[in-house]
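Duplicate of #3305? Posting structure anyway:
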């Protein structure tokens, strides 16, 4: 019987030719409680998604259909900077000073002091459906990670469980109002940043668990350089660090149970057809608030207490990469914590800011506290 079962389990463990068994959280990824020690900047902003800071030290938070600006002494003052028809997501400043805002299901918007000045809602033959992140190159051209053609950013788990590879990388010239698709068939592209030397574009693909690099002057499938091929979670946004390295968020973790469900198509389709999405066997940005959630048996809880080593339905993780794109450290909020679903990160003014979308928190830690 064991011999008959091995081919099936082998198929699960080695689900794709280029993907291996889920790596353990060990070595530089050994779990800790560092995110739990971040200070809370705001706990009153509903479902924040990303964070950015301008040269004057003002903080911008994307939340629901708005951009909230925190300013004044201690960032205690709050104002609405911009509003949109869709959900506001990824934030980055353009070299000309305008704030680039990814609007779910709608567009990329460039917002100046007088409001929205330019919008892009179509690239090539397709509408921008799931803009996760936009980043500008030194010459002002903009690269957009359009996660999928089938769902909006808030529906990311549908895209995962339906196993789509319908994402693309878009190049947009705001001066010429021209956009084109550079790469297609991507597995939920999420994070984008330009390398410190200005020569490369770094791209994360969540469902492939990879970090890749492309030369800015020749972005084609053939020029892809896979820097990390088998991350233990689903990588999100990646941003530069002041020491020449990078910060990368992993908004949820992979588990063997989810990998098993992804491999069992008949079960997966029936689950999606007959069960509320909140109770699917899938990763989540937060967990532990509903007794109907899966993963609540003895392997996860004892006497009502969540084991910190339990399989993670939700988790908080930020990885620190060096200038050679090697992971050299990590910041965690473990399974039993309440700072999960890290979707936004930004290093500014000697501090690291993080967005826990799962628990609606804006967090901050000074550099010396990250050691």
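Output from current build:
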């Amino acid at each position: 019987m064991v011999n008959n079962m091995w081919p099936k389990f082998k198929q699960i463990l080695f689900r794709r030719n280029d993907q291996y068994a889920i790596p353990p959280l060990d070595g530089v990824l050994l779990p800790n409680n560092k995110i739990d020690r971040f200070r809370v900047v705001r706990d009153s902003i509903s479902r924040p998604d990303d964070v950015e800071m301008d040269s004057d030290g003002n903080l911008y938070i994307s939340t629901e259909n708005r951009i909230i600006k925190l300013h004044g002494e201690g960032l205690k003052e709050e104002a609405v900077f911009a509003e949109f028809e869709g959900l506001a997501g990824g934030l980055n400043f353009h070299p000309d000073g305008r704030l680039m805002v990814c609007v779910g299901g709608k567009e990329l918007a460039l917002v100046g002091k007088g409001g929205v000045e330019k919008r892009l809602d179509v690239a090539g033959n397709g509408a921008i459906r799931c803009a996760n992140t936009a980043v500008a190159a030194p010459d002002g051209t903009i690269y957009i990670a359009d996660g999928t053609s089938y769902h909006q950013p808030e529906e990311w788990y549908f895209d995962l469980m339906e196993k789509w590879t319908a994402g693309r990388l878009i190049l947009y010239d705001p001066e010429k109002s021209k956009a084109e698709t550079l790469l297609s068939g991507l597995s939920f592209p999420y994070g984008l940043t330009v390398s410190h030397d200005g020569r490369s574009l770094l791209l994360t693909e969540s469902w492939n668990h990879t970090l890749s690099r492309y030369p800015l002057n020749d972005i084609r499938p053939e020029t892809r350089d896979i820097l990390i091929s088998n991350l233990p979670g689903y990588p999100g946004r990646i941003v530069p660090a002041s020491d020449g390295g990078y910060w990368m968020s992993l908004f949820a973790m992979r588990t063997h149970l989810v990998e098993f469900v992804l491999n069992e198509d008949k079960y997966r389709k029936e689950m999606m057809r007959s069960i509320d999405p909140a109770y699917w066997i899938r990763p989540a940005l937060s967990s532990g608030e509903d007794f109907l959630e899966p993963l609540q048996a003895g392997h996860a809880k004892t006497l009502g207490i969540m084991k910190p080593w339990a399989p993670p339905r939700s988790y908080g993780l930020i990885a620190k990469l060096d200038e050679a794109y090697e992971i050299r450290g990590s910041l965690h909020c473990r399974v039993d914590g309440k700072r999960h679903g890290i979707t936004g990160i930004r290093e500014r003014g000697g501090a690291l800011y993080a967005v826990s979308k799962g628990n609606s928190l804006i967090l901050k830690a000074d550099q010396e506290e990250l050691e």
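Confirmed duplicate; merging threads. The mean pLDDT is 92. The CA atoms of residues 89 and 238 lie 14 Å apart.
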